[in-house]
Task: inverse folding
């Protein structure tokens, strides 16, 4: 049976690929992002698959814009069965040259971009007595990485936020899934000036993501080799971790 799927950060990268993947599965799609021309193009592609497609231009860090977009989604589709909260930004923040405003802007999108949607969507799903919320985190939440304090710490916040939501909302029939990808080939990662191990194409990544969401997994971390490496990093003593990452940071201009 066709479901109604809302996706934030849907104009490019993982979000756009997920929209096409769910459209291929026969589901109706509501797209949310800031780039209207990209949303219009993607809507046209989705409608060619004989499913419904709608969009709303929205800055996810603005709660009023999020409320308007969610209201429009509900009016357009009558329900929100799956909400994929994918919007996110990266940013290089060296502690030695910290800019609090840049730091905050990353949290505004990566963390409050999810919080704002939860405020609007959770009451809808409670009323429906069902629903699935998937938040896109990152394997970067495993430890603090030099040059990306804002991004990695924001993903720690995302992981804990979604875990709290998962436990609390279970009794309402709402599933909450944390998706923790590694490096995915997108416009966002193309700006990285360092080697990205186990880099994956977005089309391949979204098949695993959609399978995890559809099956109701609590947490989906991938690719497995990088997940194992980041998990191992959490077990390394601080003295060894500091030495390894300090040398890496110097070689890659992160300090």
Result:
């Amino acid at each position: 049976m066709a479901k109604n799927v809302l996706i934030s950060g849907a104009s490019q990268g993982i979000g756009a690929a997920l929209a096409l993947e769910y459209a291929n599965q026969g589901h109706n799609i509501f797209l949310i992002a800031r780039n209207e021309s990209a949303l219009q193009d993607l809507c046209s592609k989705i409608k060619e698959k004989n499913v419904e497609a709608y969009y709303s231009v929205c800055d996810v860090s603005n709660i009023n814009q999020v409320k308007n977009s969610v209201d429009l989604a509900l009016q357009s589709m009558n329900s929100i069965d799956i909400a994929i909260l994918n919007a996110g930004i990266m940013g290089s923040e060296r502690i030695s040259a910290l800019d609090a405003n840049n730091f905050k802007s990353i949290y505004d999108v990566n963390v409050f971009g999810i919080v704002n949607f939860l405020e609007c969507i959770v009451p809808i799903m409670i009323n429906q007595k069902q629903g699935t919320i998937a938040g896109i985190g990152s394997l970067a939440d495993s430890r603090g990485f030099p040059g990306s304090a804002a991004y990695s710490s924001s993903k720690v916040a995302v992981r804990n936020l979604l875990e709290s939501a998962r436990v609390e909302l279970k009794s309402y029939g709402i599933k909450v899934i944390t998706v923790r990808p590694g490096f995915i080939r997108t416009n966002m990662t193309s700006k990285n000036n360092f080697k990205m191990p186990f880099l994956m194409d977005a089309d391949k990544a979204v098949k695993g993501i959609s399978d995890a969401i559809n099956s109701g997994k609590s947490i989906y971390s991938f690719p497995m080799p990088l997940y194992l490496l980041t998990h191992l990093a959490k077990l390394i003593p601080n003295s060894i971790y500091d030495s390894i990452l300090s040398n890496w940071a110097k070689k890659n201009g992160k300090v």
